[in-house]
From TrEMBL:
It comes from the Bacteria. Residues 95-107 have a biased composition (Polar residues). It comes from Actinomyces bowdenii. Pfam families: HTH_31. Gene3D superfamilies: lambda repressor-like DNA-binding domains (1.10.260.40). This is Helix-turn-helix transcriptional regulator.
């Protein structure tokens, strides 16, 4: 019986989203990306579809390099995206105090016009 891959973490998903966005911006097919990285087409597809397991450091660096970036740059951007989101505990506390889920339309309606 095949083992179920470890669930992807939020940082994994953020890294994958950045890679997919860069792939789309570059207009590269998964096949061309696989050739450019030396990775199998199957593995590239698994990574970009977020089917897990998460890309290794080497795979991240190879994919980023083929997209004109460094793996460390992709990781830094992904960490920035994660850091800008409220932590799950903070979100739950805000939900219980306000009765409004953070990030919902009702939440955004309470912002002042000058808020980003």
């Amino acid at each position: 019986m095949p083992r179920k891959p470890k669930p992807l973490e939020p940082l994994d998903l953020a890294v994958i989203a950045i890679l997919v966005g860069c792939q789309e911006d570059a207009g590269l097919s998964q096949r061309r990306l696989a050739r450019a990285t030396g990775m199998s087409l199957n593995r590239v597809g698994i990574i970009l579809r977020a089917e897990g397991p998460a890309p290794t450091v080497g795979e991240l660096d190879a994919l980023a390099g083929a997209l004109g970036m460094r793996g460390s740059e992709v990781l830094r951007r992904a960490e920035g995206q994660i850091a800008s989101r409220p932590a799950p505990r903070a979100r739950a506390e805000a939900d219980s105090q306000t009765g409004t889920r953070v990030g919902t339309q009702a939440d955004s309606d309470t912002r002042a016009p000058s808020d980003p």
